[in-house]
Amino acid sequence: MKRAILLAGVAVPASLAVLSAPAWAQAVQSAPSQEATADTSAQSDEAANQIVVIGSRVANRTAIDSPVPIDVISGSALQASGTGELNKTLNQLVPSFNFPQPSIADGSDVTRPATLRGLNPDQTLVLLNGKRRHVSALLNINGTVGRGSAAVDMNMIPALAIQRVEVLRDGASSQYGSDAIAGVINVQLKTASEGGRAQVSYGKYVTTLDGVANFNGLLGNSPSLDPTDSRYLQANSNGERKARDGAMLTYGVNVGLPIGNGGFFNFTGEYRDRDFTNRQGYDLRPNYIRPSSTTFDSREASFNRLDFRYGDAKTQDFNFLVNMGQPLGSADFYAFFTYGHRDGLSAANFRQQSAATNRDFSTIAPGTTPTSANFVGLTPDGYLPKIQSSIDDLSATSGIRADVAGFKGDFSLGFGRNELSYRTEDSVNVSFGPQSQRSFDAGGLAFSQILANADLSRQFDVGLAGPLTFAFGGEYRHEIFQIRPGDPQSYQTGPFFQATRTTTAANCTTLGGVYGGGAAATGTCSFPGRTAAAGAQGFGGLPASARTNVNRNSYAGYLEFDADLFTGFTATAAGRYEHYSDFGDTVNGKLALRYELTEGFALRGSVSNGFRAPSLHQQYFTTTSTNFLSGVPVDVSTVAVNSPVARALGSQPLKPEKSVNLSGGATLNPFRGFNLTVDYFHIKIRDRIVLSENLGAAGVGTAAQNAAVQQVLVANGFNTVGAARFFINGLDTTTQGVDAVATYRANLGGLGAWNFSAAYNYTKNQIDKRLNTLGSLAQIPGLVLFGRVEGYRFERGQPRTKVVLATDGKIAGIGVSARTTRYGSVISPETTAPLADATSLTLLGPDDQVLRPKWITDFSLSYEYRGVQLTLGVDNAFDVYPDRRPFGLRPASVGGSYPTTYQFLPYSNFSPFGFNGRFLYARAAINF
Questions:
Q1: Which of 46, 50, 321, 699 is the most exposed place for a label (fewest CB within 10 A)?
Q2: How are beta strands 183-189 and 124-128 bridged, if at all?
């Protein structure tokens, strides 16, 4: 899966892209929308006449006339943001859109998923120029929001290339197919045939970490333990820690050129270099092996206690996009091409000098018990493993629009591929001792999609208040998912681990082990000096057994009818049949209605059923790490659903998720310049696909439950499998809420024209039922396949409420923009069980944290003179952070201590706005 192979694999589609282009997109010009919450002209009166591509196949449908809610965010609003990432910008502008920004989460540090209406990232369909966008190769399996999903990497699309973004907040599987349960996001690329924009921006975080003490050296002449919590050293502090990091430099250019007779060629190129941020507190744990029980290593005083990287990963992005169109006789050819490359460098947890993961086991004999006295480190100070991600993302689509027997036809062919390669740097495989590599090829993932579409529509006069639009079409999709193993040392067990075995005392002595059988003829022979951890520390490589190359096909056909049945009453009905080669058929339908009771006031609503096909990632992703139980190596694996291990545990082929969506709302436009929309939504999903808990001897259940699962594994011949997890249809859920958006454009006389907007979202996720149909495992009392922590992550891991207030205008030629966003509370769960009932799935545990609501405020000023625009801005102007994690001893009424890491990893990954603090930026642009 080298880059050369990737490029060769798209040579033909890319060549087609150069020869063709989209005139259909020319008909849709960028304009602001009454339902957008963006600044920079987002709320103009022309919004009511904004033509949208999604929600209906009627050629002239506007956002305000749509029977379903649609937000439209202009390209200028996206460019006005200082974030540099599309997902971050949408998080600021769209109240139902959420973008947590996790850290120390492996590949999710670099490819970060976003959600719509609180549902999983893969339950929102993403389109580019109205065509399905391919998803990332990455499967999020760590403890982040969106766990178990593979999402579209929208940050590969620079804002400078975008004409507008349309967000359909309604189920649309019957119109667009799988994934459109929460809604659809359509990104429309620019179509200008002249002019352009070149810009450069620079920004940096200038922040003070709320609640994090600034370290000013250890207390006293020699290190000593804190008498209130002996896990940490005593230290001096002065105020709160300050940070000046995360510098981001972006160069971008967009150019439109005329081609042929009435055609266009629009090119965008962008380079973005973002340095890492670090929001850890000073790590006050003793780092070095203690020379004696009463003394500390003298190096403790000079050790750099900012030993982690807790924040944004370092990334470098190159993105190139071409959108082109050329009328050719009575037909229009179109094409668009995207290529993005990202290099990311994130960090794992720091390995202390005194840790077993830094011990050189070659210095002691197999039968010697490791102690502080015989400790020799592989590195002098410990080490911080780095995870290097290299991502190549490419797509090419070309097509033709032409009249066919009186129908308007659109025929297209597209290809997309996302390839992710991992390296583990500054690490060791402890089981290989001094012969270990320090740099590892950890393997890679790839996902490819071939897409063919045929869409036809025609209007008929059947005597109604308006013409009847009839549309039909079909889609073919071919998907490929691949896993490439890493190099052997990235995952193998080396010579400095030896498994406990049963043998004679004499043979145990020959082997250098410790015999535990007493006077018996045979007994246990263990090797305490050969218990080194296997695999590259920080990110173990994908093993040879994970090699995967699978594919599937799907075929779909749809019908859609749209008409004004009588004056002011619009109806849309759609149906879709789809067949997948791996799980079978699905049929979905939708009915949407809008009735304008009086001028400026309308009611609207819809009912639909939808589905999401189990992804190839979820069916076939495989990886294994080696853990040790009582000296015996066991595999803790994420396994394919059809693997022998999963089948032994009762796995069943994944079924598609099935949804029923209901929505109802109203639109109000009582006077010029003011618009209000309010919509209620209710989404029931059956058979949601989730990743099970670890099942087996090393599982997360009680000792009795783990033993019972292990008996099932052993009975099926899997003696070395310590625990396994795989995807299951594990939940029935309900998601419901309300979206409200109000916009007002006012002329304030000498102060000019100003846009004001207020948007509110309430979303509640609820688990209706946990499902356990895993055969023999269903007979184990109390065994839970989707536990308390994952339940809280699903139900309360995202804010239930979000408010966005924004305004923009001009004063004396200076553009002013202000926006403030309130993120509601979330719950950050931890693994410690509730003290009142350790088996409860609903009680809070003693280490769970309720993050309080926070307001985040952004400002910018801009000035333009003769095409040159200068902008100064600040995001999170008041330097707001999520609540700091508690650390040290818990309250006496609870007892015990908070997790050790809370002292130096002060903020939760569940913060809905991240935890980087204030960001200052400047941008210079030339419009030509």
A1: 46
A2: parallel
